[in-house]
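Quick one: structure tokens for this chain, please?
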Amino acid sequence: MLTPFEKDSKSSPQPPPQPSQQSNATLEPIPSYAEATSAQTANLQAQSSSLLDPIPSYAETSTPQNTNPHTEPSPLVPEDEPPTYAVLDENQTTFMILGTFIHTPAGPVYQISSPLDQRGPFFRLRRLSAKEVAQVGTTPLSFDRSAVLYETNNYPLLDNEYHLMGKRRHCFPGVVELKFGMSKWHVRHVPTPGAKAQEIITCKKTGALFGVKVDRRKGEVEGFEWKDMQGKVLATEALRVVEEGQVIPTVELSRDLNQKWRELLISLWATRLWVAYGAKKTAAAGESSGYRLLKGLPTGVSKRVFMLNLV
């Protein structure tokens, strides 16, 4: 006979049998902390290596990306010699102002921003392109300010002083000052802001007759000479009288000048004429006496061709 307790134990469900010690022997041992972390790191690296590029070192990131030694970054200023610019003939040393264009005997080369007798706060000079050279005289040509070589500022508070600023890399850097005093023009160069101005050129009236030399054979009135500080003549101005009394300002440059000096002297010459013609026009209107004309000139030569220094 079974007791009630024994009956209950027989009828109650039995727990599942425990695995034997032999089955436990087939299970892998639990890895240590170091083994688990190293395995996990290797697994992550294997997965990420196919998706992400390796992080570069400091030396790699600080190395310039441009590995071609023959290439350079684009310049910060416009190119000095675009392919469309007219080729400059270094053998041409004679320049003439006709209207708003500066010519050599071979044709137009430069353009000025306004007629010589038109006053304003700025006076600019630029070089013509090859395409524009063919258009001069046939098609109206506007002044392209993006191609300016030198820009002259006429500051109202400065007395007979004008500042030229180069707009191209081959121009003189900083400011070139053109100032009249002591019977001649003084050209001083200030290469950087705050630097001391250094005189590099002077310009003085030449001739014998009341300060003007008349060459009747050539029909010219020699006016000014531009010299360096050693006394070498860099350029000689003349006013050429042609048919019907028309006056053509002309300058003859020294042959051994490079392009940098040639274009500076052309800009200075045009600026000086712009100042003188403007003063003459202003005085003729009764607003100023900043110019004077010679009296008692040779017979047959128009008085209006004789323009002297500003006084």
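The radius of gyration is 43 Å.
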